[in-house]
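seq as requested:
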Amino acid sequence: MLTGHPLKGQKNRSGFALIAVLFTLIVLVLLFSSAQNNFLAHNLYLGTQIHKEKRDMIRQSIPVISMLALGARGQETEIELEGQKYFARLQDVSGLVDLNYASPELLTALISGLGHTTPETEAGVINIRRFRETGARLLRVADFWRIGQLEEIATSNITNLTTVYSGKSGISPEDAPIELLEMLTGGTGPAGSLQNQLPDSFVSLASGGIFQLFIRGGDYSQEALFAGVRVDPNSNAVTILFLR
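struct tokens:
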């Protein structure tokens, strides 16, 4: 009479059951992971769309924003767009250091004011001068670090202090941010006092036509926008030079 091995059969059935359970768990994990990825991708898409729509809305409103901020040049103006609060500041580029045309002395004073006075930074000014002597021009403020080979101090934020649009070798003291005046003079105090301390070689006349426009949301968590605009106060015409 033939006899089987019941324990062995039970072990086989238990093994198959365990494999089936593990396979089911793997499938569930894969399905959950796929659903989660789809959910995150959908949210990212919605966030990107909302961000784009906000930027487009602000871009279309730049002419109006510029005219509203024109009367308070250098100071923030509170504005409201589609129920959202924003703050805009219009800065005459004549009050900023033009990285394409500023005198070598002014460039050196700017870098020194940032707290960087080394042989490398002096060489950086020479690199910029040689670049400009070829007739080339910086297209963006950010190019200053690359052309000057000054990447080691590129963390210094000079966006609010410099431009590539004034075409002047100096700055207009009346239109200069007080932070820039303090850097160039090494002093502190009222703007009027600092303006009088600027060397004559650093001074140029105001242009009054081209501005840098800074726009930020009502809370600092919202991304700030930065634009260059040409404003004609007589005709209320505003030309956007760039938007970042």
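The chain has six helices and seven strands.
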